[in-house]
Amino acid sequence: MEQNPNMLAEMLAGLLESEPAYIIGRQFIQRLAAETGAGEEQAAQALLYAAPGGREVLCACAAQDLVRLQEAGRVADVEGYLADKAFAKPLLEMPAAAALRLYDTEKAAGEDVQRERDIGARDLLEKLMARRSLPSPIRGGVPAESRQDYANMSSTEFAAIKKRLALAAAQGKHPAL
């Protein structure tokens, strides 16, 4: 019994078209093609992530999702998001709403880190300016003189200081301790 190759192909196509998986797959492809305006072949490639045309379809689908989010009031500047390359990568890996949340979170974290760096730099500059305003010894390499420790000095040293103060007072001067 010889069968025509075309007849065999038609029988296989008929069996395939009645399979539930094939029917569901066709519905997915047709819905994606209708939503994006792309052809069914590009929509099938997009579902499989196999071809460069698939990325274009995914990007078009993501752009439409962003426009819907903008119409709902959840996104202010769609063009700004789409212009940033850091936002485009997650769009290929997840739905637009999730990519938007992830991007906004990462951007806010980056801004917080930059703000903390700016505050740290400002604090460092303030400390350096405060150090500059401290008095420095006249001769470099020589420490500044410390205050006199009257409680622990010997009685002869104390008597010499007392004599110097009395002499200065007798001359009408106001000596500093």
Strand percentage: under 5%
Major sheet characteristics: none
| Helix fraction by DSSP (H/I, runs of at least 4) | over 70%
Order of helices and strands: HHHHHHHH
User: Helix count, per DSSP?
Assistant: 8
Q: How far apart, in Å, are the first and last alpha carbons?
A: 128 Å
What is the average per-residue confidence, as pLDDT, rounded to a whole number? 78
Please provide a written account of the structure:
The protein has 177 residues and is mostly helical. It has a domain of 117 residues. The chain contains 8 helices and no strands. Helix 3 crosses helix 4. The longest helix is centred in the middle third of the chain and has 37 residues. The mean pLDDT is 78.
Give the arrangement of secondary structure elements.
Elements: H1 5-17, H2 20-36, H3 40-48, H4 52-71, H5 78-83, H6 85-93, H7 96-132, H8 155-170
List keywords for this structure.
8 helices, 177 residues, 0% strand, single chain, mainly alpha
Summarize the entry for a quick read.
72% of the residues lie in helices and 0% in strands. It has 177 residues and is mainly alpha-helical.
